[in-house]
Each structure stands twice: as structure tokens, then as C-alpha cells.
What does this fold into?
Amino acid sequence: MKNRYLKIAAALLSTSLLFACSKGADTTDKGSNKEIMDQITSAVSYKKEDDYTDWKNETPTYIELNGTEAEFDQSAAIIVKDKTLTIKTGGVYVLSGKWDDGQIAIDSEDKNTVRIVLNGVEINNTENAAINIVNAEKTIISLHEGTSNRISDGEDYHFDDSSSGEPNAAIFSKDDLTINGSGKLIVHANYNNGISSKDDLKITGGAIEVHSADDGLMGRDLVAIKGGDITVEAGGDGIKSTNDKDSSKGNIALEGGNYDITAGSDGIHAISSLWITDGSYKVTAGGGSPETVSNRENAPGPWGNNANPETDPNLKPKENLDLNPNSNGEANQENTEDTESTSAKGLKAGAELAVGGGTFAIDSSDDAVHSNRDVTIAGGELTIATGDDGVHADTSLRIKGGKINVTKSYEGIESKEIIISDGEVHIVSSDDGVNVGGGNDGSGFRMPMDAESNGQESSGANSGQLNTAAQENNEQASTEEKMLTINDGYITVNADGDGLDSNGSIEMTGGTVIVNGPTSDGNGPLDYDGSFDMSGGFLIAAGSSGMVQAASEQSAQNSLLMTYPDTQKAGTIVHLEDSEGTTITTFAPKKDYQSVFISSPELSKDASYVLYSGGSSKESEQDGLFKTGKYQDGTKVVEFTISNSVTWLNESGITAGRSAHPGGQGGPGGNAGGQKRPEMGNSGGMFGNLDEETREKVQAIMEQERAGTLTREEAQTQLQELGVEFPGPGGRQ
It folds into this structure.
């Protein structure tokens, strides 16, 4: 047993090391945020008239609406016909009163800006758009201070030309549209979209509330918002850009404002790039995250799931469903509707998604932050609950600053390449915490392996022939391309799957990383296929031991991996100190564990150390790490001397490293690279006793399930009829 006060100098040293990038510090990357602002400046051009100015000295034309009649200066360029009031020239027009079952139209015959001041107005049209901007160089809708303005349409539109599908919004513009002011605008869009522009939509102020059958705010070429209070309740996307014909367009730029978005599909969706530098965002997409997020790997069966695909949003096949039957016209004309109609992401971009500031509360059934290409987070505070990935980028994810708190997810962050250079990241996941996989949602299902495939996915009776030299070379190249790099920052992971998982390699040069979990032997705290080069920073990972890996032997920084004979209860302290009594770390894992990996700059070759278990500490803790101070009443587990880069330990002392399982998870083919995983046995035993005909039938059934043409229950029934049984959770080795 032990009771020792530690030296003040050592306490200060360890505190500086472990808590150098702790919670509460401002980690915004000012340089990267400026880069995002520069991109916005390049793509968005605001003019003086976009900001609200007093209109009373601009010789306005006053229009008083009274049911089905309107009063205005008869010399004004205004035509009233068949319940439609049409403005024909540029100028300032001030509207007040009520317009019943009619339309305000703008069809300007000159190149001057048309400015409409809504000064306490209610406009309703049951058969078409309430405000329809047919032709204008530019239109500005100003919301007068202290006024409330209501715009609404009906559920069905009557078109002169039904093939055009236009207008398709309660407020519709074929040209540039700006909304400014400080008044209130309430839009009820019962037919399709709320506010839509076929060119640029800009908002610089106002309290805007949109309730729409489909999309809330839409700009074909651009949506740019600098301020305002924006509330959107949409059956489709909350805010959306749609131009997929010109790579320089289809962007969304948000520089401020307060947002409360509830969307049936995506919260904010840019067909091209999405840039955010400031603002406050509350986004709920697809009904929000499920109460619990299932782990699709740890359950029995080739799907790795016991859940029902009909009720679990993580398992539903993607179908070309149209949530709103009235959106077909727009889809046919613009050809920009997302083919994944079930997409329910919080923030989504087709190209670049960059966040430099702002506060976010995102609750989504699909990915919370998603790009089909790259994601950069340089600042801001993001709190995320999701039924899928917290942050996903198909190509590259760069975290340069800010604070990301993923409270619920399937996988925390995922991309083909992940680089963390600063910031604070906290992840809770039902599967992998950090996953380097790549591609379009790379966390998808894998087909079971058979004995002849040497670790390759089965694809029929001749699957063993897939293991060709060309394929091995392709897999080697793919592994080399995928990389998790941690240069700085403060990262915590609480995972039911792998903690840090790279289908390529891992490199860590700085920062602090804390991993809790998994508890299942089917996953590991660290999981990589290539190598793990540990040259700096502090890493502690506590979890199961069945698939345990350490850093690579060639790592410049020393580390140790302790494997216990029995599972240690969550909260049981791990305390490591040198032979002089100087603390290296004191850590209380949040989950049950049977292995602990520790790498620290304070571990030196040829120095002796003692590892303790249990006991208590009187010092404050952060994420299980105790500030160095009084540790007492622990039990000595093992005393050892470091002679290699990686020291493998059990209760008896130093032991040999673990061997590789098929596929060489410690390095390609089990060669030099990383420390190797334990022997996993015959991965194809489940299907090894099937004849060729039965195996082909099994393969066909599984492919139908993956394509969504069979439910899991239907597939399982058909497999059982073939005599194929799957092991329970305890059957995994």
C-alpha cells in the first residue's frame, strides 16, 4: 500500500503537460477564421443598399391595402388586375394593410432596384405565391421597425404554365433578393418553399419566421446572411442553395445572426460550399437523434445489428422519396434536388464546409456536420447529438481550433484524412470515436469473410481468388493514403467501438488524448492497419484487451501497455510514477477496462517505474485525469524498467508483444509497422462449411439486404431456411 505527497516541482511539471490544452481556453484559430472570412468576401458582394436605411426621404410610393382593393398615387407605375397588384418600375414602395387572396407582383421594366417596405402588412394568396418577383434587376424587402408582417399561400397553386413549376414559394424571386430591417416577417408556405430566389438571397436583419412544406430559405446561386433572428420550421431543408451547374455558385455564407431551425431533411445544405464565421445556431434535422444509437458492429450477424431497420434511422435504406409532392417542378427544372432524399444532416456541404466561429446546438438523425469533400473547424463551440457521425468529411477533416462536444453519435468524427492541430474535442460514440475510413460514409457495413478469402470480403464461390497481388497493392496504397494526425489539442473519447481507429496509420506529435473504452473484446482502444508513430504529446487509453494495440516500435516517444488478468471496474485509479516517486499520471477510467496504454514525454529509456491500481486522490480531476498531488492507498501492480520504445506489461512484469490476426492489423500483412493484434482465429468459420451453391445463395440474400430490397428480418428468415445460424454476442473471439 502507498501514501505519498509528491514534490511541488513534479506537480507543476505534470500539470503543465497534461492540462496545457484544457477545457475553457479560447482555441479559435484566428488565422484560419480570417481565411474563411476572405473566402466569403471573395464570393459575396454586399452593397450599401443591402443594409437597412431610412426610406422616408426617398420619395416613397405608399400603398394601402384594404381587402381586395388598394389605394395609391394613380401616377405611380402600378397595375391592379385580377387580384394582382403589379409594380412596374424601380423605386421605394411602402405597403400596409391587408391583401386578401391576392398577389403582390414585381415586373420591372427598368434596371433600378425595387424596394418594398413592409409596414404592417398581411398578404395571403390561396392559389399562388403571395409575393412574386417576376422581373427586377434587384429587389429589397425592408421590414419596418416595430411592425409585424404576415405572408401566406395555399396548399395548391394554379399555374398559367404548369411545366415551369414557378413560382414555388410564398415569397418568390427570379432575381436577386435582399431582406433587411428590424421588423418581423412571418411566412406560412403551405405549398412548397418559404422564401426563394433563383439568384442571390441576402439577409442583413429582421426577425424572420418561416413555416414551409418543403425548404425554408433558398437561394439558387447564394444564400448570404449577416444578421437577424431567423426561425425556420421546414418539411425539407431549413436553409438551402441549389446551383450545381457552376462550381463558383451554390454557396451559403453565414456571418452572424440567431438561428432556430427545425427541418425534416437537412438543417443547412449548401450544394457547393458552406462558410460560417459567427452566429448562434440551434438545428434539429430529421426529427433529431434517436434516444439510443445502436452499435452495428458488436451485435450478431453479418450486419452487426440486432435493431429493426424499419424503426432504426441508422439502418433504413436510402430511397428516392420526395417528402413534398409539390417539389417535383423545382427538381425537374433545376436538377439540383439531393438524390439522398432521406438525408437529415445538421450542416451539409457538397464541397467545402468551414466553421470559424459561432455557437451550435445540433441534433440530427443523420450526420451533424457533413461534407462530400472537406471540413475545416477553426473556431466556435459545437454541441452535437446525432444518430450517425458527429463530423464527417469524405476527403479531409481539419480541426484547427474551437470546441466540439459530441454527446451522442454512431461515430464521433470520420474522414479519409483527419488532422487535429488545436482545439478541444469530446466524443461519445456507440461505435468508433475517431475513424479514418474515407469515402461516402465509410462506416458502412462489411460483408462477412470466408475462410478462403484470407481476410477479404466474400463475394461468391470464387471469393478466394480475389486475393491477387494487384488487389494487395491497391489495399496497401489505400492504407497509406488514410491518416490520423494529432499535432495538438485536447481530445477525449468515450467509445463502445474502437477509440482511435485508422484504416491507415496514426501519427501523434503533441496534444493530450484520453480514450475510455471499449469494453468489448471485439474492438480496441487503439486500432490501426499501418503504423502508429508516437513522437510527442500525452496519450492514455483504457479499454478491453482482446484487440489491444500499442504504438509502433519505431516511435520516438516511449510508451507502455499494461494488460490485467481480470477486468478492472470503472473508476479504479491507474497511477504511474518513477522510482523517485514523481508522478507520471493518475487516471480514473470512466469504463470497465482490462488494458491501459500510456505514452508520455516523461517516460525515459533505462528508467524504472511503478504502476499502482486503486487508491484515491484528493486533487481535482478533469476527464478522469487528476492534477498531480496527493495519491494514496494504491496497490502496487508491477515495477519495471523501460528498455524499448514500447513496453508490454502484465502483473508479472515485462512480457512479449501480441501477435497479429489475419490481415495484419499491427501493420500490413503483419509486417513491421505497429504492434500487432492478438490472434483472431479463422474469420471465415461461420461460412466455411457451406457448399458452393448455398454460399452463393447466402451472398445474394445479404446483397439484397444491403440494397434495401429485403429487411433484416426477411433476410434472416431466408438464411435460417438455408441452415445458416449466427453466433450471439458472446460468440465473438
Notes: DSSP finds six helices and 57 strands in the chain. The CA atoms of residues 35 and 106 lie 38 Å apart.
